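Sample A.
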Amino acid sequence: MSAHPPWRAGVSKGSLFGELRGVMDLDGERQFYIVPPSGPTRVQCTVSEELRPLVLENLFSVVRVAGFLHYDGTGPHPTLMEAQAIDGISEPDGHFSDLRGLTDAKE
């Protein structure tokens, strides 16, 4: 009995969260990398000309990129993202611990 890895090559619609880095915009190749907080070291992303200003605006910032995720079948993480939308994620104004005292629970 041979064990087959559970991963399969394919494409699915989804999103990635991470830092936008490594922009390459030479000879019509519009690519960048997302560095997620966990999982793969980086995921290559391709982007249309319409989204190019958003890439430059969010460079070295945390973003959520939505589009088509490509899997090569060698693992659970995507290897390529065809980006259709890019949303910058701003830092939160506070922290969960700042909510202390909102209830009348005794500490």
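Sample B.
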Amino acid sequence: FVIAGCNVFTPRDSEKPSKPAEWNTFPITAQQSLENLVFAYNYRENVYNYASLFSDDFLFYFDNQDVLDFSLPTYWNKNTETETLMNVYQRINDSSTMYLKLQKIQSQNDNVQADRAWFYRSYELTMSHSIDNTPTLFVGQFRIFMEKENSGFWKIKEWNDYRLQADNWTWGRAKNEFSL
């Protein structure tokens, strides 16, 4: 009687499916490619889409002062860039999150043309992790140069990272830390 009273054998209500991670599958505008950069960091599910953001000859340039102060490389290529985000997700546990927030820089206007674009943003990247002597907040500014490829999709060709204050870790410095 006890088992019959608990309705053990009656089906339960189904759970609503979780919302899929945001991603612009066909980035036909430069703005959509920039959005995808944010989506790659804010949604773990997009880590495998990350490489599609970059042209084959992509280069990431570290902040010059970070290069001098911390012996970072001057730049790296698409392969290192995409492997680094994979490393980040492998080194933070599944329940940890990253959150990337971009803001327009008031003193520098974006320049979007028919087949190329320059974006200027300040950023805050918050990352939950357990690596000693590494902060969880990374701040700075960047300039991203994109081109529209023959496919009609926009790809990031060049990314320059800039430090705002000496005591802040930049995104580039975080990338270097997680690339090891």
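B remarks: The longest strand covers residues 116-127. The radius of gyration is 20 Å.
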